[in-house]
Structures are given as structure tokens and as C-alpha cells.
Specification:
about 270 residues; mainly alpha; about 60% helix
Length: about 270
């Protein structure tokens, strides 16, 4: 494996997208068209350096707050503290026949509803961990887009696998963030297995396929959606030289749009 041109003792799989010299994580400067080495980064204008990246995962905190507030509102409206039925869950949970009847918003609102306190706690803890890892690294807007695409992908997967079941939870978004974190780590020359993230994903997939009552389609759909969005935003610019910076972002948003179209088509079939 190649070694960093500034730190010969560090192996890396990442190269500067301009001069193609190998660079380690300490020498990487994120730009809209991939990673730059320090010299190439200084030759560019309006570059986001490591020091300029936000450090507080503000959007992560906002998403956690919204989920908690929705859960409290659900309890006040009569939702069960241990199940998915009742109150806001009945009105906003993902349910194929209801989506077919015109309740298209359930594709989105289901991602902010939870089947009990433990379900909420587990998902919010995972969101806190992953958001703290990913949002400062990629920026608020990209993080938000990845999460949105993951939620929509999770809804599509859930409707595809079990359209007659009432599905709630942020798990699709969580699985999407896990997949995106792997893509971003690999893009920056970090082995996801060494970070423990690969083991965490494997454990969650094991739980998904072995524990009854879990939406397999929602988890897999979110994982695929978030991973594809991250691949487009963080790999496409490195592979296609001269590509306008906005194109990968628009293509990632297109994955979410396709998930919505797919959800409506599956619900109506």
C-alpha cells in the first residue's frame, strides 16, 4: 500500500484529487471535488480546511429533540409506551393501505415516531453517536441530506417488504448513517473495522434478521439509501474529473426522490 508523501511511515489508500500524491488523514483537506493535499489546497479558493469544519453536531441535536418531542406528543395523544399502536402512531405510522389512500406524508412522519420508550432511547443513542461522528466530518447540509435519503429509503424498504404492517421508527435513518460513515471513512483512508463501526453494523444486522417484530425492509432500505447517497457525494467527484460540485449532491437527492416514487408505487400496487 502507498504511504503518505509527507509522512512516509503512514499507509493510506487516499490520494490528492488534484496531484494524485498519496495523503494520510492528517494531510487531507476536504473540498467539493474530493480530498486535496496541503499544497494543492492552498492553491484553491473557498476551500474548507480541517480547522474550519464545524465541531458541534447541531443538526443531530435538533433531530434528537424533534424525535423526543414527537414521542411526548404521542404519549399525550394516547400512544402505547410499549407498542406501535395508538395516538400519533396510528395517524402517522407507515401503513401501505393508508399511503395508497392518500396519506403520503406517512413516508416521512413514520421516521419520527417510535414504538415505546426503549425503541426511542436505542435509536436516539445511536443517532447521537453517529451524528457526533459524521456531521462534523461532512458538514450540516450533507449530513441532513444523507439522513433524509436514509429515512425515505427506509420507508420504501418497509413498504416493499411488509406493506400491511404499521411501521414506525428512525431506524432507517440510523442504518443509513452507519452505511454513510463507512463510505466517508474509507474515502479518508480510515479502516471502518479498526474503528469498531463494521462490528456495530454487523451486530445490528444480526439483530435485524433474528429478533421478531423488527422491520427488515426498513433497516436494509435505509442502509442502502444512506450508502448510495454517501457514495455519490464523496466518491463521484474523485472519480469523474471536472464534474460540477453540485451534481453529486443533486444525484444524492435524486435517490431520495426515487425512494418516494417507489414507496407510492408499492403502496398502490
Amino acid at each position: 500500500m502507498a504511504t503518505c508523501y509527507r509522512h512516509p511511515g503512514r499507509e493510506t489508500g487516499v490520494s490528492c484529487s488534484n496531484c494524485e500524491r498519496p495523503i494520510c488523514p492528517d494531510c487531507m483537506t476536504p473540498t467539493s471535488v474530493g480530498m486535496r493535499c496541503p499544497e494543492c489546497a492552498r492553491d484553491r479558493t473557498q476551500v474548507r480546511t480541517a480547522g474550519s469544519l464545524q465541531t458541534d453536531p447541531t443538526l443531530t441535536y435538533v433531530l434528537i429533540g424533534i424525535n423526543v418531542l414527537v414521542f411526548v406528543a404521542g404519549m399525550l395523544s394516547g400512544a402505547s409506551t410499549t407498542g406501535s399502536r395508538g395516538g400519533l402512531n396510528d395517524d402517522g405510522g407507515l401503513f401501505g393501505p393508508a399511503v395508497e389512500a392518500g396519506d403520503w406524508w406517512r413516508i416521512v412522519t413514520a421516521g419520527f415516531l417510535h414504538a415505546g420508550l426503549f425503541h426511542l432511547f436505542f435509536n436516539m443513542f445511536a443517532l447521537w453517536i453517529l451524528g457526533g461522528l459524521l456531521e462534523p466530518a461532512v458538514g450540516r447540509l450533507r449530513f441532513g441530506l444523507i439522513y433524509a435519503v436514509s429515512v425515505l429509503g427506509g420507508s420504501f424498504g418497509a413498504l416493499l417488504a411488509s406493506p400491511e404492517a404499521l411501521t414506525v421508527g428512525a431506524s432507517g435513518g440510523i442504518f443509513g448513517l452507519m452505511g454513510a460513515a463507512v463510505i466517508v471513512m474509507r474515502n479518508r483512508g480510515i479502516n471502518p473495522m479498526e474503528s469498531g463501526l463494521g462490528l456495530w453494523i454487523g451486530l445490528n444486522l444480526l439483530i435485524t434478521f433474528t429478533v421478531p417484530g423488527i422491520s427488515i425492509g426498513g433497516h436494509i432500505g435505509g442502509l442502502v439509501g444512506g450508502s448510495l447517497a454517501a457514495l455519490l457525494m464523496f466518491e463521484l467527484g474523485d472519480r469523474v474529473r471536472g464534474l460540477p460540485a453540485i451534481v453529486p449532491t443533486l444525484l444524492a437527492a435524486g435517490i431520495g426522490a426515487l425512494a418516494v416514487v417507489g414507496s407510492l408505487a408499492v403502496a398502490g400496487s
